[in-house]
Structure formats: C-alpha cells, structure tokens
Design goal:
This protein is mainly β. 0% of the residues lie in helices and 50% in strands. The protein has no helices and 11 strands. The strands form 2 sheets. Strands 2, 4, 5, 6, 9, 10 and 11 form a 7-stranded mixed sheet that branches. Strands 1-3-8-7 form a 4-stranded antiparallel sheet, with no helix packed on it. The termini are far apart.
Length: 119
C-alpha cells in the first residue's frame, strides 16, 4: 500500500513558476515509478510527467516539455515537479501517482493540489 501527499499548489501569474511536491509512504523494497497527472475543470485527467526509480528515465507530456522538470529524492521519498513559464491552461488539480509505467498511471493516487495560473 502506498500513500501519497501533495503540497505546494497555489496561485501564480502567467509566466511565473511554482513547485509541487509529493511525499510517498511505501514499503522500503518498492521501486515505484512516480508521476504527476492533472485535471482541469470539465476535462479528463491527463498525464504530465513521470520518473523512474533511479531517475534515469523521465517522461513529459508535449504540452509541458521544456517548461516542467520532474525529479525525485528516494532518501526522502519525495518527487518534485518544478513548473516554469506557467500558462493559464496549466490551471488544474495536480495529482501525484505511483506504480505506473511510462506515461501510464499506476494504482496509487494522492488527493491532489490546486494550481491556478492567472492571465
């Protein structure tokens, strides 16, 4: 069983930056891919970014490539999404996810953190 808790959402102006973090509680021998998904009002949840256990592989949605960076610290059981050059269309609830494969989600979800980008 994995528990995920996000933090760091908030309100930012277009062009600004924001960092969202997720702390994962998991069995010590787990090797989960960690990722971020988002859901905007009235839209389906979509993939944003993911990172392998070692950090050697990262995956990004085309819409965020070059603006967002995902990283993880396994010693602290955290995954961070650094978001730069934010756009109003990045406004969404951002969810941490564990256990996925590449751009596909796994079974474990956090409750989400809201990111609002004003124009």
């Amino acid at each position: 069983q994995v528990q995920l808790v996000e933090s760091g959402g908030g309100l930012v102006q277009a062009g600004g930056s924001l960092r969202v973090s997720c702390v994962a509680s998991a069995p010590t021998d787990s090797r989960y891919v960690l990722g971020w998904f988002r859901q905007a009002p009235g839209k389906e949840r979509e993939f944003v970014a993911a990172i392998s256990w070692t950090g050697s592989s990262t995956y990004y949605a085309d819409s965020v490539k070059g603006r967002f960076t995902i990283s993880r610290d396994n010693a602290k059981n955290t995954v961070v999404l650094q978001m730069n050059s934010l756009k109003p269309e990045d406004t969404a609830v951002y969810y941490c996810n564990a256990g996925g494969l590449g751009t596909m989600s796994g079974d474990y979800w956090g409750k989400g953190t809201l990111v609002t980008v004003s124009s």
